[in-house]
Amino acid sequence: MPLVPNPFRALIIGSSGTIGSAFQELLENNPQCQEVYGIHRNSLHPIDYDDEDSIASSAKSLLEKGPFQLIINTIGVLHSERWMPEKKLEDLHADQLMQLMKVNAIGPALTMKHFSKLLDPAGSVMANLSAKVGSIEDNRLGGWYSYRASKAALNMLIKTAAIEFGRTKPNCALIALHPGTVNSNLSRPFKGEQIGRPPLDAAQDMLDVLLSVGKEDSGSFISYSGERLPW
Ligand SMILES: NC(=O)c1ccc[n+]([C@@H]2O[C@H](COP(=O)([O-])OP(=O)(O)OC[C@H]3O[C@@H](n4cnc5c(N)ncnc54)[C@H](OP(=O)(O)O)[C@@H]3O)[C@@H](O)[C@H]2O)c1
After folding, report:
1. How does pLDDT run across 3-45, given as a tens digit for each residue?
2. Please, which of 34, 86, 150, 218 could form a disulfide with 100 given CB 3.0 to 4.6 Å?
3. Number of C-alpha atoms within 13 angstroms, CB side, residue 57?
4. How far apart are CA 91 and CA 84, in angstroms?
5. How far is Cα 78 from Cα 54, in angstroms, rounded to an integer?
6. Ligand 1 center to residue 103 CA distance, Å?
């Protein structure tokens, strides 16, 4: 049975991003969604993974707006002005690996810690955008060391928290969600415009998946198509 009720209230974390803003737009126009809040580095209740304290203070300042039945964290990074994904081991650098771990794994884990207090204990879903390239089993091409490792770490953090939630918040599901290749700032240097799908299409597919998530799905790695992905 779906955990997200009708009507529901939603929170998008990273709503300045391509996929985050698509979710925000979709939910603003979804009759089932009573209210949607979007937060990012430069919004009200700012959340910045380069400032760890902002995660707790953002969650605390939003407490009175809750509870939320759907929370989607879309924050993530693949490349920056200083570095691109590694093609070979020789390209691996500690600062890049640490920054990706911080933004793709540590920040989202602390977000689960603080923002899970905003989830409706009667029925809710919290999804983190992961990536299929974070699957260890599915890794056939190699490369992209830091991004792959940071998303694999994120997946483990989600799975572990989901097991705890099974005991402490049995009606709150935690999901690792793969958006597919989407035309965005993140994918642009990798032919995202040619091979990526429009963000609104991807967000609609993911929303359909999230609105059908039940208790038994908590701790799963799910694709935008609803397919279960290997860890
Ligand atoms: N696009 C794809 O093909 C694809 C494929 C698989 C997985 N994903 C995942 O989907 C998610 C969304 O990606 P996207 O394509 O929408 O990328 P995007 O357009 O680049 O958006 C990234 C978001 O992350 C935020 N962000 C980055 N560093 C941050 C930090 N230190 N603190 C707080 N916020 C930070 C950005 O905020 P600012 O606007 O302030 O920079 C923005 O809101 C990511 O987790 C990505 O790994 C994307």
Report:
1. 999 999 999 999 999 999 999 999 999 999 999 999 999 999 9
2. 150
3. 12
4. 9
5. 22
6. 9
The whole-angstrom separation of Cα 56 and Cα 53 is 6
Residue nearest to atom 10 of ligand 1 (CA): 129
Distance of CA 108 from the midpoint of ligand 1 (Å): 12
Question: Can you give the pLDDT at residue 143?
Answer: 98
- Domains along the chain? 8-223 (3.40.50.720)
Measure the CA–CA gap between 80 and 181, rounded to whole angstroms: 18
Partnered with residue 205 across adjacent β-strands are: none
Q: Quick one: tokens of 217?
A: 């799905």
Q: Which of 167, 171, 202, 166 has the alpha carbon at shortest distance from 184? A: 202
135 CB under 6 A from ligand 1? no
Residue 218, token pair as written in the block: 């908590």
DSSP letter, residue 185: T
**Residue 70, strand partner residues:** 10, 125
Q: 121 and 183 in contact (C-beta within 8 Å)?
A: no
| Tens-binned pLDDT, residue by residue, of the chain (231 aa) | 999 999 999 999 999 999 999 999 999 999 999 999 999 999 999 999 999 999 999 999 999 999 999 999 999 999 999 999 999 999 999 999 999 999 999 999 999 999 999 999 999 999 999 999 999 999 999 999 999 999 999 999 999 999 999 999 999 999 999 999 999 989 989 888 888 999 999 999 999 999 999 999 999 999 999 999 999
Q: pTM surpassing 0.70?
A: yes
92 token code pair: 């691996």
